[in-house]
């Protein structure tokens, strides 16, 4: 063993000495492609020609190449490394460290390989048992403590292990159904007319979508004499310019879904205390909360839609700059909107 280690070390030393002592062939000056240094910059630095490259990129400092190989291997000593130019595999010689050190290195490599899978398993297991616990708490909260315990005691273990974690999954999937968006899209389409639903105009801020004098082809924009088509507006807005839908937020969906049973229980106890059955009371409270919340969201989004529909971008003139305070450090006067947020038509 000792003789093998000595022979390997001697071979490496001879190779480095031969490279350092040999002059540059064909009169070319050696040029390190890692640090861009030459023989004049560092006369004592060991050089190596590790690949089939020719010309300026065939030489590299031994120390520079060692650092570059370490970056590519990222702690895996046995990972193969190739030249980035000619794709030749580097011949890397590692002296033996002994039997005990080799065993420890094998164990260390094995741990590095299985650690990501173990971490993923721990995370998945934690999420699963958290979902099981949440499902059990939700059952106790909605059905009642004594009834919920009796129900879970009578159930099969496999049913509990599968059914309880499906409770938060079902709540999250249900929360992702944005039924308010479908109603808003219907109210904001050109096919919807407030004259067909006069009661909705009393409850929601709905205006006649067909009337907008700045939209091209507006049926109520007015026309010329004799029923001639109206003149094209100066600044026509194409359909779909006004968008009020919000992107789906994962954190908001998660919080809203997981808090729904608790909110439903509170609403049921406050407003529907006459219902004796705890499960029915929670269901009614949750349904009432979802409906009221959805109506308020529709009202709020429709208000935003009407405001955006009336928003206009003005010409950059001196009069508009002075009127709305654009380009000045002072605040706009009372009653004027902030620059870029003009209120009113």
UniProtKB/TrEMBL annotation:
Low complexity bias: start-end ranges: 327-336
GO cellular component: mitochondrial outer membrane
Organism: Aedes albopictus
SMART domains in UniProt: RINGv
GO molecular function: ubiquitin protein ligase activity; zinc ion binding
PANTHER family to which the protein is assigned, alphabetical: E3 UBIQUITIN-PROTEIN LIGASE MARCH5
Protein name (record): E3 ubiquitin-protein ligase MARCHF5
Region described as Disordered: spans on this chain: 319-345
Pfam family, one: RINGv
Membrane topology qualifier: Multi-pass membrane protein
Transmembrane spans: 117-137, 157-177, 253-272, 278-300
Reaction(s) the record says it catalyses: S-ubiquitinyl-[E2 ubiquitin-conjugating enzyme]-L-cysteine + [acceptor protein]-L-lysine = [E2 ubiquitin-conjugating enzyme]-L-cysteine + N(6)-ubiquitinyl-[acceptor protein]-L-lysine
PROSITE patterns per record: ZF_RING_CH
Known EC number: 2.3.2.27
Pathway(s) served: Protein modification; protein ubiquitination
Keyword list, A-Z: Membrane, Metal-binding, Mitochondrion, Mitochondrion outer membrane, Transferase, Transmembrane, Transmembrane helix, Ubl conjugation pathway, Zinc, Zinc-finger
Domain of life: Eukaryota
Subcellular location: Mitochondrion membrane; Mitochondrion outer membrane
Residues covered by the RING-CH-type domain: 24-93
């Amino acid at each position: 063993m000792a003789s093998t280690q000595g022979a390997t070390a001697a071979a490496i030393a001879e190779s480095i000495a031969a490279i350092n002592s040999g002059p540059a062939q064909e009169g070319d000056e050696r040029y390190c492609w890692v640090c861009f240094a030459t023989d004049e910059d560092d006369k004592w630095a060991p050089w190596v020609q590790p690949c089939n490259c020719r010309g300026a990129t065939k030489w590299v400092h031994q120390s520079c190449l060692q650092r570059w190989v370490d970056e590519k291997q990222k702690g895996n000593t046995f990972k193969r490394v190739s030249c980035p130019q000619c794709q030749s595999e580097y011949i890397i010689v590692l002296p033996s460290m002994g039997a005990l050190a080799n065993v420890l290195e094998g164990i260390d490599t094995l741990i590095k390989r299985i650690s990501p899978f173990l971490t993923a398993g721990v995370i998945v297991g934690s999420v699963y048992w958290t979902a099981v616990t949440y499902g059990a708490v939700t059952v106790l909260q909605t059905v009642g403590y004594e009834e919920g315990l009796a129900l879970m005691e009578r159930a099969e273990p496999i049913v509990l292990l599968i059914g309880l974690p499906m409770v938060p999954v079902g709540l999250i999937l249900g929360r992702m159904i944005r039924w308010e968006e479908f109603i808003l899209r219907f109210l904001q389409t050109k096919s919807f007319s407030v004259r067909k639903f006069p009661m909705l105009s009393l409850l929601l801020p709905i205006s006649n979508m067909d009337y907008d004098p700045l939209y091209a082809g507006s049926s109520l924009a007015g026309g010329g004499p004799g029923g001639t088509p109206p003149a094209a507006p100066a600044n026509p807005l194409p359909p779909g310019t006004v968008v009020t839908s919000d992107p789906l937020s994962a954190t908001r969906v998660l919080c809203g879904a997981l808090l729904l049973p608790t909110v439903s229980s509170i609403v049921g106890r406050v407003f529907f205390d006459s219902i004796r059955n705890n499960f029915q009371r929670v269901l009614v409270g949750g349904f009432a909360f979802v409906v009221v919340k959805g109506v308020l969201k529709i009202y709020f989004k429709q208000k935003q839609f009407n405001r955006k529909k009336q928003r206009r971008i003005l010409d950059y003139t001196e009069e508009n700059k002075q009127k709305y305070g654009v380009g000045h450090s002072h605040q706009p006067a009372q009653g004027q909107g902030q620059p870029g947020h003009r209120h009113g038509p």
